[in-house]
Design a protein that fits this description.
Layout (H helix, E strand, L loop, with lengths): L1 H34 L3 E5 L5 E4 L1 H7 L3 H4 L4 H5 L5 H14 L7 E8 L5 E13 L2 E10 L1 H23 L5 E3 L5 E4 L1 H6 L3
Antiparallel strand pairs: 1-2, 1-5, 3-4, 4-5, 6-7
């Protein structure tokens, strides 16, 4: 009887230690995901949102309460992409693989107000006892896309100006290699 009581006490202590470790682990995960600037989402095997961090609330404008349990792609994907998603999702549910799995890709997404915007998505598959789950980290890249577009405009203007002059213009790098040569200079050297 004494051994049985001792074994029960030891089992209870082990459960308490395991529960404390689990609670610490959960607290750490939430501390990380709550402080992330990127949206961190998880989709269950039925295609529903099972995790939605505060950055996802800021980026997509849906609260966690509004998002959890809703079909992910119906919530944040532009309607014109839904058919392609449904076709790809069937394969993902079976294998955990897809065109975006284990890659970082650029896509269009929608905010709650319907505004489309560009995102960068890093997607991983996670197999749990109930099937394949998708874990996505999404970054709003609107500012980056705008900066890239402005840079292209600036470069086009620069090239137009350089080639519009009849003067010979060139630019060299640190190793004195030509990196820009305008048309009049190229014509002068017969190129």
């Amino acid at each position: 009887v004494v051994t049985e009581i001792t074994a029960r006490k030891e089992a209870e202590i082990q459960r308490e230690v395991a529960l404390e470790a689990l609670n610490k682990s959960r607290a750490l995960v939430y501390a990380i995901t709550d402080s992330a600037q990127d949206a961190i989402l998880m989709m269950d095997p039925a295609g529903c949102i099972s995790f939605w961090n505060p950055a996802a609330e800021n980026i997509f404008a849906y609260t966690k309460k509004e998002a959890i349990g809703r079909k992910l792609h119906q919530l944040i994907a532009p309607e014109r992409f839904l058919e392609a998603f449904h076709a790809a999702f069937e394969g993902f549910k079976t294998t955990g693989q897809g065109a975006a799995t284990d890659k970082t890709i650029e896509l269009q997404a929608c905010r709650k107000n319907g505004e489309e915007f560009p995102i960068e998505l890093s997607l991983s598959a996670l197999h749990l006892e109930d099937g394949w789950h998708a874990l996505g980290i999404m970054r709003d890249i609107t500012a980056r896309k705008q900066a890239e577009q402005e840079l292209r405009r600036s470069e086009a203007l620069y090239r137009t100006f350089i080639n519009a002059t009849s003067d010979m213009v060139f630019l060299k790098d640190e190793q004195l290699r030509n990196i820009v040569v305008n048309r009049p200079l190229a014509a002068f050297f017969g190129k």
